[in-house]
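BUG-457 | component: ligand-complex export | severity: low

The export step for uridine-5'-diphosphate-glucuronic acid jobs runs without errors, but we want the raw record kept on the ticket for reference. Input record follows.
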Amino acid sequence: MTARLTVLGAGYLGITHAVCMAHLGHDVLAVDTDAGRVDQLNSGRVPIHEPGLADLLRSGLDSGRLGFTTSYREAARHGDVHFICVGTPQLRGRNRADLSQVNECVTTLAPLLDRQCLVVGKSTVPAGTAVRLAGELVRLAPAGAGIELAWNPEFLREGHAVADTLAPDRIVVGVTSPGAEKTLRTVYARLISGGTPFYATTPATAELAKSAANSFLATKISFINAMAELCEAAGADVTVLSEILGADARIGSAFLRPGLGFGGGCLPKDIRAFMARAAELGAGEALGFLREVDAVNLRCRTRMIELTCSLAGRNLSGAPVCVLGAAFKPGSDDVRDSPSLDVAQILHGMGAQVTVHDPVALANARRSCPQLNYATSALEAARGAAVVLVLTEWPEFTRLTPAELGGVVARQCIIDGRNALDPRLWQDAGWDYRALGVNARGPERSLADQGAARHSR
Ligand code: UGA
């Protein structure tokens, strides 16, 4: 059944949600206050790098079921269900969420709501936000108690946003009435009938589901990176340890890739906002471990700097350093809290001549760190380098060969910031290969290789 939806906020989440809801057959109007962005989207251009999104945007626009506007008034007229998809970044200088965009969205929309409708929050917010906003809506909307609020957290990953929205692991809705649940079941009917599990719960549980999921993922990453520190101390190899742990089905290998740790616009700020909210609720102790998760993660960056200094002979001043990767992860052009760019900036601050290359995030990196040098190819970035750091595991970097890079660098030193290269390939070619959590004398043979060797015997 077709529903009339609006999507408030055309950022990462909002564009993806609007485009995918139109693809599912709904009639969607998305709102953003940035007129330039709205024009861009209405002409079929996607302002972010996200595989598959541009095609769906164009087919949505062509179908007449998708449009973008700057007018909340138009949105209020159009929608029976309004999705709040604005950002909740970290508050500047504080370890908590900045809810100003969500608050503004509600206070702008509410006075325009003169008929019954459902407002659905998708943005990541601290537990308790939905209840507060529900009260605001009823107070400010001409339709009063006819306006209901639900919370429907989003679990999509950048780089997989379309697939994660059209084939999610689960749909979670926090509702306060059977009517709201029914409306959301209608919106997601095609996904539910395709087998996606649907959880209807309270708004507080729905809000917590998102914060808890991101905290768990961050904890897994920091756990393996803490093990990397231990491996260095004990002369062990974290890549092999990670394989061994991941082979236990109860642990699982996902999010157990050791390296430079997590960044981006979600995991770092979400664990901090979660801790802040827990403290406000008087349950701060319960999330004390997340402080360590954050600390281990930030230590990855410090350890990477130390490793670079040790390879460059401790004196970074004027040392030509090549950084491959600026995006916070491959498949994305997002440089928010990017570990790679953070390391590049610190090395630059220490006097190194840093040259960065990234296949899609160059423009964003340039805007956010104009002080760094940028190159339009990996080989150009590596020309004359005393050390090459692979900090985002783009396939074009992991495919580079020792011979290709060897032809342009000044010294054959490579730091594999994501444990994504084949150490033996580089060592056999005479390179000084280093990685966090891997013995400097060279890594052990991976378990998979040993298995393959056993089978081939
Ligand atoms: C994350 C969550 O995975 C999504 O489920 C969630 O919806 C999203 O945040 C959000 O809150 O909006 P995303 O930020 O796109 O998604 O990125 P991830 O794929 O989770 O990666 C986060 C960081 O962890 C990256 O910097 C990545 O390089 C790093 N990572 C990931 C590791 O260092 N090791 C791993 O094993 C996995």
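Assignee comment: Attached the raw record above. Residues 451-457 have pLDDT under 50 and may be disordered.
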